[in-house]
Design a protein that fits this description.
Helix content: under 10%
Number of domains: 3
Strand content: 35-45%
Number of helices: 0
Structural class: mainly beta
Shape: elongated
Distance between the termini: 124 Å
Largest sheet: 33 strands, mixed
Length: 725
């Protein structure tokens, strides 16, 4: 097949009141007489032979007022064998209802455009040697600027040049619906494409080794049928690509999408790529996706890439988890790499199972990106695991796909907060290579609710590294583990690293766990925590929340915590059932690791206990020196300039009673203390406190200054004048 390039523009959608399959017994194929050489078809035929049309090079053009094929009917394009593309337009106002057979000669590709809509019924079939393309676009627009329009068939220039294959769908966009309920199939290596304002596919589309594309330009795209561009052959074959795109609506897929490669004795047949993209809506998926490469005896190729994108919406699974699988497995030979899986969503990813695996090479990378506050719920990610592999042509077989090869990395990034609910990330290894690394990044809060990260090794490999960077981190029955298993060799496995860089706070609760422990003769890993405050809530069950880098026969790992404060968790051995929150880097037989805690607040020193009984203030202050202490003090005297308080109730101070009347002599001198007050007051005068001292038992006592460099040069003024009768 020659390369065919197409492009779809945008337009407003049109609502159709009725899009049913035609019930007439005769075909409705009527030419419109708009071409230099018009199409030729017998009116009222059931099996209609279509001849004529305008030929330009390897392209044959047909134009019809109506084009429909009834149940049991046939539209046969009797083209010359050297024709590569048959381009057909419908210029009238009728929908194309096709419930019969469409066929053509040779290897020609068939293109059909009808802006009013195209309905393919349950009995719709294809018998063509090339690819099939159906669209509700207004026109074809070619690279040389010429146009083949269904809405303006007389527009010049019309077919003035010999255009070569390389078509574009052009300036005017799809405005009608495409709906398929039939079983449409093209030859090996060819493609199937349906493009409409909205697209509904309930049938089966098969294009072995070719591509399948469904595009909705201005409405929703709904697929409940199986799409199969997968390939199987005794030689080397490659799976085709699947593309489902909704540019301005929601995308829903409940069908099985399979772009696998099944090679028998061949070499490196890669799986195809699968893309599900909605630019302005939500993506719902309940059907499985498979872009794997499998070979029972030869060399398997790489798994294909899987992309689910809803940057302005959510990605949601159905009532049962949809599996996204991209693996490379050879039962006896070598395998390629697992495919990469990418998810893009605004706020939600839910109810999915993601597997990217390889039996002897590296598994693929899983990348999840949130463009808002992202919640990952009921979602499991596995980049190595023992799985049951369904063969396309036989019973399932069980392979230990994690026996060799490095696990894939997992990268989760959110523009806002990031929450994991009942989800897991497993990037472990059972072979000699390293487990995958897990990286979590968010500028806000990261929360693990009953969720876990597992980057372990159970063989001679090294556990993966776990890195989380966020403003705050909450583990609520959450687990971050990068554990290293024993080995039968003399070589000790080195532990992995867990690095948590948390700007403000790290909270552990409900038996949460941060573990880089080791079993057997392996060494514990390293845990590095940098945070503002580290807090562990009191245990509610038998076990507390622990931070562990312990070992059995190897050496314990190192735990480094740098925090402003650490609360309710301390260094001690973490034993199950102890109901304590522990930091443990011990080893049963080897050397214990180092626990290095740097903090500005040391809770192990305890808190200062403040006295519960305060000093009696009535014994420390003279109440006669308060404003209005004398019930008869109901007058005030204006003394002239300066020293006037703002209110009669204010205290008159010594420092404000004199105005600047002259210069006083320098030097120190003692002044007599006036003794005025109530006649019955025989106590020593109360002196204003000038300082305070702390007693050995922690009490604070106000005292008068013993001496001052320069005493008050002026007599103190009493709080109130002497009472008079």
């Amino acid at each position: 097949m020659k390369q065919v390039i197409f492009k779809v523009g945008m337009a407003s959608s049109i609502t159709f009141g009725c899009l049913g399959i035609m019930t007439t017994s005769l075909a409705q194929i009527v030419r419109d007489n708009t071409l230099p050489v018009n199409s030729d078809v017998t009116p009222g035929c059931l099996v209609c032979k279509i001849t004529g049309g305008t030929v330009r090079g390897v392209n044959l053009f047909h134009s019809f007022q109506e084009f429909s094929v009834p149940t049991g009917g046939e539209a046969f394009f009797d083209n010359a064998l050297d024709i590569q593309n048959i381009l057909t337009r419908v210029t009238g106002n009728s929908i194309s209802n096709i419930d019969g057979l469409i066929r053509a000669n040779g290897r020609a590709n068939l293109f059909l455009i009808n802006p009013n809509g195209i309905i393919l019924g349950r009995n719709a079939r294809l018998d063509i040697g090339g690819s099939f393309f159906a669209s509700t676009a207004n026109s074809f627009k070619f690279a040389d600027g010429s146009e083949f329009s269904a809405t303006n068939p007389q527009a010049p220039p019309l077919l003035t040049v010999n255009v070569t294959p390389g078509l574009q769908f052009g300036a005017n966009s799809a405005r009608g619906m495409i709906r398929n309920s039939g079983d449409l199939q093209v030859d090996f290596g060819e493609s199937l494409t349906l493009i409409g304002s909205s697209v509904v596919n309930r049938g089966r589309l098969t294009a072995r080794g070719g591509d399948i594309s469904l595009v909705a330009t201005n409405g929703n795209l709904t697929n409940s049928g199986d799409l199969d561009p997968g390939a199987s052959d005794p030689g080397t074959v490659r799976g085709g690509n699947i593309s489902l795109v909704a540019t301005n609506g929601n995308l829903s897929n409940s069908g099985h999408l399979s772009s696998y490669s099944f090679s028998v004795g061949g070499e490196r047949g890669d799986g195809g790529n699968i893309r599900l993209v909605t630019t302005n809506g939500n993506l719902t998926i309940s059907g499985d996706l498979n872009s794997s490469s499998f070979s029972p005896s030869g060399t398997a190729g790489d798994g294909g890439a899987i992309l689910l994108s809803a940057r302005r919406g959510d990605i949601r699974g159905g009532s049962t988890k949809a599996a996204l699988a991209s693996f490379s497995i050879s039962e006896e030979g070598d395998a390629g790499k697992g495919g990469n899986v990418t998810l893009e969503a605004q706020n939600t990813v839910t109810n999915l199972e993601i597997l990217t695996l390889s039996s002897s090479s590296r598994s693929g990378t899983v990348r999840i990106t949130g463009f808002g506050n992202l919640s990952v719920t009921d979602t499991d990610i596995l980049t190595s695991k023992q799985v049951s592999v369904p063969q396309p042509f036989g019973n399932p077989i069980t392979l230990n796909v994690g026996g060799e090869g490095r696990s894939g990395d997992v990268i989760v990034t959110s523009s806002g907060n990031l929450t994991f609910n009942n989800s897991s990330i497993e990037s472990d290894t059972k072979g000699s290579d390293q487990a995958g690394n897990v990286t979590i990044t968010s500028p806000g809060e990261v929360t693990f609710n009953d969720s876990q990260i597992i980057a372990n090794t159970s063989s001679t490999g090294t556990a993966g590294n776990v890195t989380i960077t966020a403003n705050s981190l909450v583990l609520n029955q959450g687990e971050l583990t990068a554990e290293t298993g024993p080995t039968t060799s003399n070589q000790q496995n080195e532990g992995a690293n867990i690095t948590l860089t948390i700007s403000e706070s790290l909270l552990l609760q409900n038996e949460s766990l941060i573990s880089a422990r080791a079993t057997g003769n392996a060494n514990g890993g390293n845990i590095r925590i940098n945070t503002g405050v580290l807090t562990a809530l009191p245990p509610e069950e038998n076990n507390g929340s622990d931070i562990i880098a312990s070992a059995k026969d190897g050496d314990g790992g190192n735990i480094s915590i740098n925090a402003q404060g650490i609360f309710r968790i301390e260094e001690r051995e973490a034993n199950r059932g102890n109901m304590t929150n522990d930091i443990d880097a011990t080893s049963q037989s080897g050397s214990s690791g180092q626990v290095n805690i740097i903090t500005f607040i040391d809770p192990s020193q305890g808190l200062n206990q403040l006295p519960s009984n305060f000093t009696d203030s009535t014994q420390e202050f003279d109440r006669t020196c308060t404003p209005q202490a004398n019930n008869n003090a109901n007058q005030f005297i204006i003394t002239g300039r300066g020293g006037i308080p703002s209110s009669p109730d204010d205290i008159l101070t010594a420092d404000t009673v004199l105005d600047d009347l002259g210069t006083l002599a320098t030097g120190e001198q003692d002044t007599e203390t006036q003794t005025e007050g109530n006649a019955e007051n025989s106590r020593n005068p109360i002196i204003e406190a000038q300082g305070w001292v702390k007693t050995p038992d922690g009490q604070i006592i106000l005292v008068a200054s013993a001496s001052t460099p320069n005493g008050n040069r002026y007599n103190s003024i009493p709080c109130h004048p002497m009472a008079t009768d």
